[in-house]
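quick one: glutamine bound model?
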Amino acid sequence: MTLSSLRQQFLSGETTPAALLRQLAGDIAARDGTTGAYLSHDLETALAEAEKADLSLPLGGIPIGIKDNINVLGQPCTCGSRFLSENYTSPYDATVIRKLRAAGAIPFGRLNQDEFAMGSSTENSALQTTRNPVAPDRIPGGSSGGSAAAVADGTAIATLGSDTGGSIRQPASHCGVVGLKPSYGRVSRYGLVAFASSLDQIGPLTRSVEDAARILQAIAGHDPLDTTSLDEPVPDYVSGLEEGVAGLKLGVPKEYFGEGIDPGVRAKVEAAIQKLAAKGAEIVEISLPNTSHAVATYYIIAPAEASSNLSRFDGIRYGRRAANPSDILDLYKKSREQGFGPEVKRRIILGTYVLSSGYYDAYYGRAQKVRALIRRDFEDAFRHVDAIVSPVAPAPARRLGTCADDPLQEYLSDIFTLSANLAGIPGISVPCGVTDFDGGTNLPVGLQILGPHLGEATLLRVARAAEA
Ligand code: GLN
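yep, here:
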């Protein structure tokens, strides 16, 4: 079911929001024991909201699953971490939740993720394993793995995720659904538990491009509670979706098709680009020369910001508090030792190191300069092309457990998604076929489309043409 077909069914009385919620809860009970996308859900509260749903609103009565790092009043918000899994309940609604409610939607269900959104597989969740519904021996991708898996499994109509370096687009690609990371500042981050504040954005994961456009429509816009949110008008994202690609110039960055890309992924992405050409798009080869620096740059800036953001988890203000500390310092140490998992600790150590006196200029300061070069690469490219097309990830979903001792391998697989966050531009992943990989068959491949800052409307239009 897409959002618009559901809306028709609600308006005609063919089904009701309450019936849909009961059906989803039944599907979760039947299937999610295997998939593990949901950490929790509260049917009673959702049913009470369904009673009052205003079906005339754009998302009236539609349940939306929420990544477990976005605050919903009265619900848990674990961030996939033991730090918050025992005694934290959200005291307020994130702005995106307030906006979804204003559009008539019902937040329903909390979705698993890598701890504090650090990872690309959801294996870093401290709470449970999430499997790819397409191939249950494989990762769903991450960090918004639960958000992608629930949509792919049919246990959610649509979900919200967050994307700091690919965490919406990559799991969407691995699970065969649509995932949109908006431009930095397009969607308020107020109420999203911060990972790397200069990179984080909230966005939708859906079964269709049109659904992604409808949800972006509801959540985009200025928010005085987030000083980085932009005070720019929100265009109509739905009306231009069918305008096609004839006359548009699409850039193919040569650095995104080099060494290390799986041949099956390359073939599917190239075929999708050929189909866009057949629909009248002009395909031009472009260069984003600083692509090779993206991983190093991101894995300095993101941990640096994370080490600062995560200092608030001290055992006093939020979440887990260690028992029997000898003094206040011991309380901090024990709470953080017990509350954070290994990947989060690794990031805090890396981030603290690159910010420390004597290393700041060599690492953090330098990374900021390279970030400016990466941004400039895109500004130069968008002087000549309307959008950029590429793979989302170098390979399809790998098997669970195969990167456990090799974080660097995992970091390198983010190569095609990180740059959009560093540059602040929007990106979308659209399914473009399936391929065989590492003993698995029919594994989804995503086409990534990148647009200029605030160019979501064009990006969605290209995505819609690719989807069609
Ligand atoms: N995989 C990247 C990381 O581990 C990106 C995660 C994200 O976008 N939240 O940091």
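The radius of gyration is 21 Å.
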